[in-house]
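Narrative summary of target 7.
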Amino acid sequence: MTRRVGEGGSPIDWRILLIGGVLGLGAVVVLVLLLFGGGGRPAVGVGVRQADDGRGHITEGVAGGPYSSTPATSGTHWASVQNWGIYSTALPEEAALHNLALFTSLAAALLPTPTLYKLAERRSTRHT
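Modeled conformation, tokenized:
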């Protein structure tokens, strides 16, 4: 028994080919963006060492600062933890700074030591 071309067997499902083509094209676009994207000039202040404005706690509701950067990266701040999430109004700098300090401590505790050394080394070579 012989089978003619185009007879029998399972027909090509064009939907699967379309989905595969779209996924393949998407992968190519992502690859191109990763390889060649971001070639513009960095935003002002990106990768620039910020002044150390201190790190003490103050009573909640009391104004801290003055802060040498916006948003503040260091300085006196409230001791209370703010809920993580999206707010309809900006948190006061004094409130946001405490969460920033907690996140930094958490990252230091969770990241393996070699990773921290690599990050510190990369940071020191960029800022010298």
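The chain has three helices and two strands.
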